Amino acid sequence: MMASQKERETHVYMAKLAEQAERYDEMVESMKNVAKLDVELTVEERNLLSVGYKNVIGARRASWRIMSSIEQKEESKGNEQNVKLIKGYRQKVEEELSKICSDILEIIDKHLIPSAGTGEATVFYYKIVTLHEGVKSTMKCLKVEYGLRPRV
């Protein structure tokens, strides 16, 4: 068995293990390693990649919403010191979200689309691109919905 095939199997196994343990950041890292082998992903591998990113992003979006809600409450109470602390923390989560989205888009662009052998795989990757571009737009919309001031 070729080294890259063994490496691929190890990364896929680790991604499955991470999924079972609900350690989605590690699941994503394992699947990124598979993608960087510049091979066409199987349906199972594509799904592992997608599930990992979905959970990583979902957790941070939930955190962002909670922080934004708390920020609003503190603002309405006039607790400027707390608002400042929350704002910094919320911005950290925003930066993480932005990095995660940029990360998957780069992996798709540099490794997955060039290695896609089927139309089905290519369509799958473009759907992910659309979803992650949508996350960035959603964050902008949520800021408006929560009445948050843009970052200066």
UniProtKB/TrEMBL annotation:
InterPro entries for this protein: 14-3-3, 14-3-3_CS, 14-3-3_dom_sf, 14-3-3_domain
Gene3D superfamilies, per database record: 14-3-3 domain
All copies of domain 14-3-3, residue ranges: 8-150
SMART domains in the cross-refs: 14_3_3 (SM00101)
A Pfam family the protein falls into: 14-3-3
Record PROSITE patterns: 1433_1
The organism's place on the tree of life at top rank: Eukaryota
Similarity comment: Belongs to the 14-3-3 family.
Protein name: 14-3-3 domain-containing protein
Organism: Solanum verrucosum
